[in-house]
Design goal:
With 80 residues, this protein is of the alpha+beta class. It is built from three helices and three strands.
Amino acid sequence: MTLKRSAAGVLAGFLTIGTVLFAGAGSASASIGYRAISDHSSYAECKAAGAAVAHLYGPLSDCRPHQFVANVHTLWVRVL
């Protein structure tokens, strides 16, 4: 019985991890399902880059201020 319980616990852990890893975010942000692909010196430049790669990554993209560098915007795109 102990081996069966251990196996069930491990399986439940993997299912939980898989659910967290593959869950999508409701909005574009630095979260699971989004990837930072480039940095830009202005918000307008970042949005233009997002429009330019929409055929590769789809229409879901967002420009956020860089976490550590002032006056830099990071382009985040939805990755499936």
